[in-house]
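Hi V.,

Quick status before I head out on leave. The structure for the redesign project is tokenized and pasted below; the design run finished overnight.
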């Protein structure tokens, strides 16, 4: 059977996973009466909730005698390590672009990686049936993007199609029949070359491990593309690290290949196949699995370095241990090192004392997803404010810069530009109309300036703005950047918050807790209306007398408290504050609680 390996690239919410759903349906991967969940490739709970692809996943369809292995890549740069590794397994890419929005920052990030590998793209203009779609403009912007990314002549001479992934059609012409996805299937078969590895079927077996998974019955499973030779179940092979060190020899206990949405056991894998194998104990991502006669490892794609670091510590608040079962530093360390094993973009470093760990990664979203997964597993953590990682070049301190692409209503452009280019030390790169009364602003802003900005941005744009960001490069340090301006309201007592007390405190600022919420000394319960922090008593009840008079017994009506998401809470805090994360709660508190005060608070809370 002929073979094609292709990756699908798209910005967040441009319809990539929905299009893969239709490819699976129309290729006959499902039975006619089979119940299939929407966005079938998003297998992770967080992916379904947030509508984004976090983990790269592979599937396989058959089309007129050709097996097409399709790899669904993450659309967010924070998960870029998945992208860089996964692109080394394919021979072509399908670039999916929203016909209304055009190419966006995450599209640019992943596409630059694909073009650098020499992959020839197929461009699909999706959602052309939307009322605000401008496919011709979007196509011109894609060509300009490829030119800016130094694409060669073959890559610039790309074929393009018009599609609606939700409706399940794709045509070469905008006014085509709009019936099915045959045009896309045929173009993949005709435009994407067959794996060059097919010519190496008779060589010694080699394979580069790209993703690591776990099966409860067979243990660790490594996925990758067979670069040369054949592999049979029961064969003894070895693994070699990126720097040429031999790691282990092991017997292959299982080989699985992607067939539709499922992994299917096979007896033999050939060059060009994308497969998962089991049997190893130490081998991990980026290692080469090969025959015993092979001495040299395969070249692994370099991974971009992390740009931010967050400190994970034990939860030592007075409310610790009430929600989660996993609270010890030893258990947290094991979980973080397990994550670093599968996610090569993350670095773990122990701090002096051993009760906290510095976790470095690509961005706030990546950290937020890791913390969210851990709290769902029963962990309790205290999380510090993200710190940007600096580096030295020729004696000059360099800091990471991100490219922020902002779509905002015309009336709010002034406020957004003033915030980005003023205190946050950004540089305006481009500003152009985006249609429908909106303006697109592109600016290069230090990563430090964007930490904690999103909430302020939504306030400035009345919730209508869209902000996307992607790592751009390094620049000399731009000096101090002010953090959050508002102070916070800090509880000075332990117990349960009283509605009457919160009602009286509303004139001091915005509340972050409701009535009956447990509080303790040092816990942040709201945002002060001024710049200084203020200690308040949320337990102060109304003094009762036996005299009743009309007008004095006012009804207590509380304003709905601010509810911060995990990422918003991490970005909101200052350096002297922490986020307390448990399976059922996200709380903010001051970093330093006096040990005696902590014991007293634990008794009272």
């Amino acid at each position: 059977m002929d073979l094609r390996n292709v990756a699908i690239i798209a910005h967040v919410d441009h319809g990539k996973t929905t299009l893969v759903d239709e490819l699976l349906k129309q290729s006959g991967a499902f039975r006619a009466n089979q119940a299939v969940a929407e966005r079938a490739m998003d297998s992770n709970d967080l992916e379904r909730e947030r509508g984004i692809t976090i983990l790269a996943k592979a599937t396989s369809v058959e089309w007129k005698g050709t097996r097409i292995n399709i790899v669904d890549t993450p659309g967010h740069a924070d998960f870029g390590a998945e992208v860089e590794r996964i692109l080394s397994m394919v021979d072509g890419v399908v670039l999916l672009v929203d016909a209304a929005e055009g190419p966006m920052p995450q599209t640019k990030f992943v596409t630059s990686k694909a073009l650098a590998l020499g992959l020839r793209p197929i461009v699909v203009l999706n959602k052309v049936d939307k009322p605000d779609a401008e496919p011709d403009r979007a196509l011109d912007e894609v060509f300009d993007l490829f030119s800016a990314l130094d694409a060669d002549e073959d890559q610039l001479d790309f074929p393009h199609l018009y599609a609606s992934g939700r409706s399940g059609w794709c045509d070469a012409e905008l006014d085509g029949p709009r019936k099915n996805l045959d045009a896309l299937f045929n173009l993949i078969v005709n435009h994407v070359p067959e794996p060059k590895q097919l010519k190496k079927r008779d060589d010694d077996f080699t394979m580069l491990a790209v993703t690591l998974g776990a099966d409860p019955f067979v243990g660790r499973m490594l996925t990758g593309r067979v670069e040369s030779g054949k592999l049979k179940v029961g064969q003894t092979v070895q693994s070699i690290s990126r720097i040429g060190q031999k790691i282990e020899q092991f017997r292959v206990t299982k080989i699985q290949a992607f067939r539709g949405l499922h992994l299917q056991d096979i007896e033999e894998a050939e060059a060009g196949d994308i497969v998962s194998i089991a049997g190893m104990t130490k081998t991990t991502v980026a290692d080469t699995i090969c025959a015993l006669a092979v001495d040299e490892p395969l070249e692994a794609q370099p991974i971009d370095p992390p740009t931010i670091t967050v400190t994970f510590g034990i939860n030592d608040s007075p409310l610790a241990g009430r929600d989660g079962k996993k609270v010890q530093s030893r258990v947290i360390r094991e979980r973080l090192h397990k994550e670093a094993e599968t996610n090569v973009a993350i670095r773990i470093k122990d701090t002096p004392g051993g009760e906290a760990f510095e976790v470095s990664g690509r961005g706030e979203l990546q950290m937020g997803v890791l913390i969210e997964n851990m709290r769902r597993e029963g962990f309790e953590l205290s999380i510090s404010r993200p710190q940007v990682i600096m580096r030295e070049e020729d004696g000059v301190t360099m800091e990471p810069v991100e490219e922020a692409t902002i779509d905002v209503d015309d009336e709010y452009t002034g406020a957004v530009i003033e915030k980005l280019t003023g205190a946050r030390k950004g540089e305006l790169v481009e500003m152009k109309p985006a249609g429908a009364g909106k303006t697109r602003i592109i600016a290069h802003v230090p990563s430090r300036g964007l930490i904690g900005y999103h909430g302020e941005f939504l306030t400035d744009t009345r919730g209508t703005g869209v902000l996307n960001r992607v790592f751009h490069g390094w620049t000399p340090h731009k000096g101090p950047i002010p953090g959050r301006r508002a102070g916070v309201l800090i509880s000075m007592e332990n117990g349960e918050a009283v509605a009457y007390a919160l009602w009286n405190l509303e004139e001091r600022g915005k509340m972050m807790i409701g009535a009956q919420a447990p509080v303790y000394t040092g816990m942040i319960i709201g945002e002060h209306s001024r710049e200084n922090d203020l200690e308040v008593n949320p337990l102060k009840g109304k003094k009762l007398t036996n005299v009743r008079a009309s007008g004095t017994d006012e009804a207590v009506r509380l304003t709905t408290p601010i509810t911060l998401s995990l990422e918003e809470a991490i970005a909101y805090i200052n350096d002297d504050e922490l986020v307390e994360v448990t399976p059922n709660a996200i709380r903010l508190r001051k970093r330093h609680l006096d040990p005696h005060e902590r014991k007293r608070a634990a008794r009272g809370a």
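Above is the designed sequence. Confidence is low (pLDDT under 50) at residues 35-42, 600-605.

G. will cover questions while I'm gone.

Best,
W.
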